[in-house]
Structures are given as structure tokens and as C-alpha cells.
Amino acid sequence: MRNDSFSLVESQVLPDVYQYLRRECGLSPKSTDAATRGLAASLYMVHVKKDKEVVGMGRLIGDGGCFCQVVDICVLPSYVSLIADGDAYRLYERYGFKPVWPASRGMFYRVK
To answer: What is the reported pTM?
Structure first.
């Protein structure tokens, strides 16, 4: 998938990139050994690049039969924006997010 200079890559990142993204996004650190073994055991992994820089990632882990979890969802803080439903904005305000109104407005289209 390609959008301007962003691209979605369906593959594993290198352990040092994984460690960097986790650290920059405020997730707990992982040793190189843990990162290498964990990434290799992933069921599925994607990462997002802006130009040649990896700016986000996510992966699926599971037991191969009954359970699957989405983990390691992270995006470098300089690339984060969000739309909060209802009163959820109060949660995000605690983490430093600010309203963008009136400069921008979130919208959606409902198929009838």
C-alpha cells in the first residue's frame, strides 16, 4: 500500500528497529535476544515507512490454534494523530493531546 511517501510493508522489522520503535513510543524495552526470538515467532507483522524511515509497526502473536493477539502497536510520536469518539478525548488529554478544532474537523461518511 502506498500513500504519498508512506508505505505499508508486510514483513518483520530488524530487532534493532523493533527496539528503537518500542523505546521511542514509550513501550517497555526488550533485549536483543528477546526481540530476535519474539519477532521470529510472530504470526504476522507490518510496519509503516515514511520514505525510508520505519515510523510504526504492529504484529500478531498466537498459539496457532485458538488465540491471536494484536501487540506492539506503535507509531513514532511525531506521526501520531487520532480521532476520539464521544468523551474519549478526556483520556487522551491526560497524555498531552490537544483539540485541533477549529483548524481541523474529523468527519465520517455513513453508507445508507
So the answer is: 0.76
